[in-house]
Amino acid sequence: MTVLRPETQYATLAQQGEAAQLGMWAFLATEVLFFGGLIFTYFIYRAAYPADFANAARDTELWCGSVNAALLVTSSLSMVLAIEAAAMGRQRAVLFWLGITAVLGIAFLAIKGYEYAADYRHQLVPALNFLLKPGYRPPGELFWIFYFTATGLHAIHLTIGVALVLLMLVRARIGTIGPLYYAPLEVVGLYWSFVDIVWLFLFPALYLPGRG
Amino acid sequence: MLVYVIGWLVLLVLLGLEIGSAFLHLGALGPAVQFCIAATQAAIVFILFMRLRGRASLKWIFAGAGFFWLLLLYGLSATDYATRLGFPTQP
Questions:
Q1: Residues B34 and B62 in one domain
Q2: Which of A32, A33, A54, B62 could cross-link with A25 by S-S, CB 3.0 to 4.6 Å?
């Protein structure tokens, strides 16, 4: 078992952990503005061209978005259970729940990849092969630009999240995360749940218009 | 631990309601209902899964700061779009 000591600038491990968490919250505040600005442009253009956005959104794969929303919500649960297990010093449970979290994240990315392939087949990718269907108007393409920008940025965030979860798996395995100090795991958990929240807002924006 | 499982079940039920509401003919009310459900889900994830529950107020301030600035961003940008002439342009 590795002996853990706080970095020189901190008095205790608890203080170091608190500082790390506040740092992640400060970063997440910038992420709120980043994705918030993106979603604001969506609201502006959806309000400007409601019928075109409804038509375009009907061509998204609803089951992909819905299953992915359920996967991410479930991964937020497994992530918090990993943190709880770390706090109680149950090392095997930490590894188990982190493994589940990583698998759920990878499953999300796999479904997303399948969906992108389907979008390409249906000629819905702006700048590559976008084809305006008969009866549709050009603002529909705006929807698809937003779709790929938003889901692409989200997928990059999730890929980073999966890498961080795998790193935490390694650290839990070699024992640098344990009941005395698990702040890195808590920080990754904050990031992971935030990426989940972004999807909770992208889902109704991208998959639900025009279904009624 | 039980509280997390209950929170997860509530999130899944809300997701089901959200998808179901998309197939009702709610008109302009539809997106309002769906984004209200999304905001409720987000609040549950923030408070429960991001463990803000029972935390020091400093953490709440950091968490709330992003939304405070987002409110300013939305408010000021919306006044621009609401008063802009010739928007939206017709395709």
A1: no
A2: B62
Determine, for residues B74 and A36 on separate chains, whether the beta-carbon distance falls below 8 Å. yes
Query: Is residue B1 situated within a structural domain?
Result: yes
Is B61 found in the same domain as B45?
Answer: no
A80 contact residues in B (CB cutoff 8 A): 4, 48-49, 51
Cα separations in angstroms, A46 against B10, B37, B66: 29, 19, 24
Q: Which of A80, A141, A142 to mutate to test the interface with B (most CBs of B within 10 A)?
A: A80
B-interface mutation test, from A39, A208, A211, most B Cβ less than 10 A away: A208
| The overall pTM is greater than 0.90 | yes
Find the CB nearest A36 among B35, B50, B70. B70
pLDDT in tens, A124-134: 999 888 888 88
Count Cβ atoms below 10 Å from residue A69 Cβ, excluding itself.
25
Q: What is the maximum span of chain B, computed from C-alpha positions, in angstroms? A: 55
Instruction: Return the closest-CA partner of residue A36 out of A210, A201, A170, A208.
Output: A201
Domain assignment present for B90: no
Does B19 fall in a domain? yes
Q: How are the residues of chain B apportioned to helix, strand and coil, as percentages rounded to the nearest 5?
A: 75, 0, 25
Q: Do B46 and B63 fall into the same domain?
A: no
Do residue B2 and residue B44 come from a single domain?
yes
Residues A87-115: tens digit of each pLDDT: 999 999 999 999 999 999 999 999 999 99
Are A170 and A54 in contact by the 8 Å Cβ rule? The answer is no
The residue range of the domain holding B13 is 1-51
